[in-house]
Amino acid sequence: MRFVSVVSVPVGDQEQAKEFYLEKLGFELVAESVFGDDLRWIQVGLPGAQTSLTLVNWFDEMPPGSLRGLVVDCEDLEATYRTLSDRGVLFLGPPSRQPGGVFAVLRDPDGNQLALRQIGS
Hints:
Elements: E1 6-10, H1 14-24, E2 28-35, E3 39-45, E4 52-56, E5 70-73, H2 77-86, E6 90-91, E7 96-98, E8 101-107, E9 113-118
Parallel strand pairs: 1-4, 5-9
Antiparallel strand pairs: 2-3, 3-4, 6-8, 7-8, 8-9
């Protein structure tokens, strides 16, 4: 094994989720296609990252909003927090020091939680 390439994010409305990840969080569209019986593969990723996200709505075991524990590293968490807050992204609270770095947890439109982290400082 070499690295994690794709993580599935359970969403209710793929188009709304795609808009949020692209326009609010600054992800890029990696791939989008239709497969099977009108299923859509929407893959988004951060510029230069090896790992990307798929916005899925076809796993019964993964209801929309059930994702927790996904950590996205930031160089300047305070600046990222301010920028995303200005774009209307909702956070559970301001950045705070925790074991492993400084964290700020955000919610996507479905309630999935992504933790932004800055190591050090």
